[in-house]
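Predict fold of Spermatosis associated 20; 741 aa.
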Amino acid sequence: MASGSEGPSSTSHRHTNRLAKERSPYLLQHAHNPVDWYPWGKDAFDKAKTEDKPIFLSVGYSTCHWCHVMERESFEDEEIGKILSENFVCIKLDREERPDVDKVYMTFVQATSGGGGWPMSVWLTPELRPFIGGTYFPPRDRGGRPGFKTVLTRIIDQVVKLKELGNRIIEALKKGTTITANAGQSPPLAPDVANRCFQQLAHSFEEEYGGFRDAPKFPSPVNLMFLISYWTVNRSTSEGVEALQMALHTLRMMALGGIHDHIAQGFHRYSTDSSWHVPHFEKMLYDQAQLAVAYITASQVSGEQFFAEVAKDVLLYVSRDLSDKSGGFYSAEDADSVPALGGPEKREGAFCVWTASEVRELLPDVVEGAAGNATLADIFMHHYGVKEQGNVAPEQDPHGELQGQNVLIVRYSVELTAARFGITVEKVNELLASARAKMAEVRKSRPRPHLDTKMLASWNGLMLSAYARVGAVLGDKDLVERAVKAGGFLKEHLWDAKRQTILRSCYPSVFHSLSPSISGFLDDYAFIICGLLDLYEATLQTEWLQWAEELQLRQDVLFWDDQGGGYFCSDPTDSTVLLQLKEDQDGAEPSANSVSAFNLLRLSHYTGRQEWLQKSQQLLTAFSDRLTTVPIALPEMVRALMAQHYTLKQIVICGQRDAPDTTSLLAAVNSLFLPYKVLMLADGNTESFLCQRLPVLSSMSQLRGVATAYVCQDFTCSLPVTDPQELRRLLLDGTTDTEIE
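Predicted 3D structure, encoded as tokens:
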């Protein structure tokens, strides 16, 4: 079980504000600032209107490095705190709890400043209209850049003029952010859009180390999943081969790089350099979820065990450090922590980095048979690029926090390391594993980074998919069982059955306090539905399919745009959210509309509901302009468009769920990456959920009492097959000698 969350402290505080009564770890971090903070809500809005004061809205999240910096520099400053409290109504917002509010004001900041990020600082009228915004501000003027105190003074002096400007900007944003389908329009042609998306990704691809820009470099799993899916329908073309190589090279280089935690598993947020070496050290749940899926997919298409091992490595980290006993998953681990030796100030990466002397002291044993009487430290330091003076370049360490430290990165293959020291590859693998285990034990004794124990519905949905998909591919019952536990957690703790509402988040200490909880947003529904569909395919237990259908019906009621098609990100009836947005970018997380387009398509095949097929088409039509001009912004939605175009294969296994012959056929299906398929079990029960929805399943039966597979597409099915290898060939080739209606 992970530890390190910010709990109650016996320390007496000079200041305590009303954030002390909140549950969000981010808000609690600011509960003792000398600022009169309010949480987002009616009390703050009423005060602003009554006193006719502008609002200062500060948005961040608990593991945000620069949020910590701005708090330390500005929000803990008595003088700045006094200016804020006397002249503004100050609101603190956790972007992970209220992504709807965050998106509105981030849209404003990006439109007016050309950039964005967190912490986000926005000034609003009492009517919540933004009039000026930015991100991090230094406390005092620095290098020609105005400091936070200067910005506050200027706003106080010019507030009337600035408010008028804000009113004009928000009206322009309402027009500029509208996404709608025109009458008679249909989705763009999938092959054309997919080709353009590939070309745009190829143009931005960095060939030496993989990835899609020089630096900073982000994992971007949505790009990698698109490229592999593109290859599955373009295997015989040079573009298809190039797409696959781009994805596999990127995944390999990330796994070897410092962005991958070689001692305690999992992936850090992003790399500050082009070689994936020095990361920003926070670890986010959504990255682990998507990367586990990307790596297991890479193992399916390449046959390389290396990629499967990385997928298991990610889930080992999540199971150990981000898992709650209830079955849910925590949100993140911070980048900053107190160094084991070296004062009370937190430093980025302190938990993860090593000096050469630490490594030498920990691994002093001479390795028998190694050239030059090499020690285990010599071999480890060679393999992982550890240098006596540290291996972090000054330009990657602007604050000097990593001076003399080493971020582990695989510099040589095990074959080269073995040759260098005159020992076998097997011996090198054994030695490196032993060294990593010893170093992991040392890390356990270091002060841990802050752990954000907030459990978000959307990110738990992504993680549900990861455990279900990796478990199914590997035939690992423990991983599938962990997915089942996560599904149970979501239903027990984040589903309010009485109100038929997904809850946005919950916390370990307050599971059963439903009344003040925030209702879920579009991404909560979409990601959970996707996770449930993946869980059904991993377990073939229809209870998960039934709940997915129930949630999709609810999602349609809450968020569907009857006029323009597609889904709004949040409840369109909430008057405190000024822009009704439809997320049009697959970024660190996929757009909920992208995921929904795929969910609708899959569910239409599971339930026979043709209206969901039509809704999926309407959604894709609403995003036609974006898909046509900049498909690189929506690679996950391009995958859904391709699924529409190529139509889903229905793979029906007739057999008993846990019987060995059924398991063998399922293993054949799961060994392949089939992005455009649905998998279902017909167990002979004509009263089952699936037979009630799809009566045709009742006509499919086992041959000679043996588990049997049917592969159907466009209302035509292959002849039944009972041999797993024959099924595998059928799925790979896509054709059979004889087909039946």
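Confidence is low (pLDDT under 50) at residues 1-10, 735-741.
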